[in-house]
Amino acid sequence: MLDIRTFDAKGGGNVLYKALAHPLASAALRGLEKTLSAKGSLALYDPDGAAATLVALYPGLRPTAGLYTHDSEQVGQPDGFGGAKRALVDLGEGEALHVLALSFEHEKMRARLQRVVRENQNILSLASARLPDAMLSNPRNYLDKLNFATNFAFFRDDAHFSTRLVTANYWCNYDATNVRYWCRLYDDAGAILAEWEEPVADNPAGIIIDSSEVRARFQLPAFTGQMFIHVIGARGHDVVKYALDTYGKPGNSSLSVTHDANAWPSPRYATLPAPNDGEKIVLWIQNSHASPIPAGAITLNPMGVEEHHSVEVEIAPFATYGVDIGTLIPDLRWPAQLELRSGNHVVRPRYEITEGALTRIAHLNVERSDLKPEPALRHLSPALGRGFVLPFPILDPTKFTSIVQPNPMSEQIESLPLRLDIFDEAGLLKTQKFLGNLPRAHHTAIALHELTDVPGHADLVYDFRDGGDGDGWLHAMMRYRNKENGHTAETSFGSHIFNTLMTWRSEPQSYAGPPPGLTTRLFLKLGQGDRQSFSCLIYPASIEGLYPSVTELHLYSAQGEQVGQQTIHIAPSGSFMLWPHEVFTAQEIDTAGEGGYVLIRDLTCRLFGYHGQRNAEGGFSLDHMFGF
User: Fold this and answer.
1) How far apart are CA 325 and CA 542, in angstroms?
2) Which residue, 161, 279, 348, 618, is the most exposed by fewest CB within 10 angstroms?
3) Element (H, E) at 419
4) What is the pLDDT of residues 332-367, one digit of tens each?
């Protein structure tokens, strides 16, 4: 597993990791590896604790002549490379011919190290791996997180499918100007197919990057790969958010949607279903780094079972490789689920299910390594009501099947004590179903359409009546199927405490700012071509006694101008199926145009939503929404 520190729940993303792993930086660091490998002994000066991450990504920069520190309390401690950390003042007495200071500030490091190096010691730094100032949102502070607002997107255009990234310029809400999306497209072998900038208007304009347009613009062959995105001019936060549609070419009515990739690799991922009879599942492994993934470094195992099946193929830098789950693990069937041990090599992967002529894509979720079972969840304050709630839609049972499967989502959780609370659209509790204390290796999937005869939503909550443990990272995968034509969509997400005035640690989470999160800002794209978009908006309520929402729907054009506004009300624990073409006039929808969107705002409560599209053939997509 790559020994890299990428993300933690308190500090967020590790900016230094992003600076070292950026594709432009990686080219320079690969060159530095080649140069130093032929020029004698190398010492590292590590002022900021970057050595482990650097060497994991670039093994050729492993120190052969010691790791030096200016922290007097660290001298003599293990250096992570089989030796002990040395005092910086002793650098000149060491055997190193080359000293690499792990800093992007070359002149600063040179001035510091000249006090201690020998005359024949060559001082180097990471300055050659700096991005150009023109790509930096804050050139004065290189390791500002806003300089590395980056992400990956699965991107494909072939005879059967196209992909389309859709978002809006939410950076302008933080007074950002001259925002650009710098993009680099890789093919399945990791070769660069194209590189370009997408300009963005200085207002809340819609943004579309369509694979078919990119393919035509650069006269590319068919491709299945990934697009790296670097937002220049970011303000407010460093998360690049988007919705990603996969849609079939004429003759293929398949339709899917996923979302932003979580830009930090993780050791493990979950929410991966085993194939059902008649299904083929391909797990798309997309290397996020400039070093190859060794054969056998990535494995899959049945959830809760230490039975590991390795991917015995080396995957090149930035390459994309499809793993046929049924071939790798031939005897496992849904409702079994799988765990991906990815070794920190990839950001959140996608999986693709083919069933007959239809295909759908969904994403895996990060399995947390920093969480332990939390006894306090059994005794939360009454002011927090039901506590953690995972809300998700139940589509019209006369037309759709709706199935939920709970997922273990932290490495140490061994039990899932759960209950389903099922509500109609008006927020009335229809029924409850205690699921028991499920083991980590459970094969449980619940048919929600058999528990209610009306559309609405369900909340998955903790229920400790039979014991068990919780960790506050409750997740589930939801699968929906059209009874008439077999079109299917699935998504997965996790729980939060919703709409309580009292807080517990970081809950109720806010889209922006500290808890309690009691407001809503959600993005819903309009339909494209013959496709109509929709959102199932849910008012999750951990407590009773709340008032109906006052939810404003702002329709924006692709040019960032508001062209319509409506207000709706959703009952606590209720839901609302929003179809923009039904809420706004045809003229307003036409004015909004391709790239238009609905901004869903509420200052009275935090709503949660799922969005998708429906095409003329009855195909549909569905995934949870994002806010900004």
Assistant:
1) 38
2) 618
3) strand 415-424
4) 999 999 999 999 999 989 999 999 999 999 999 999
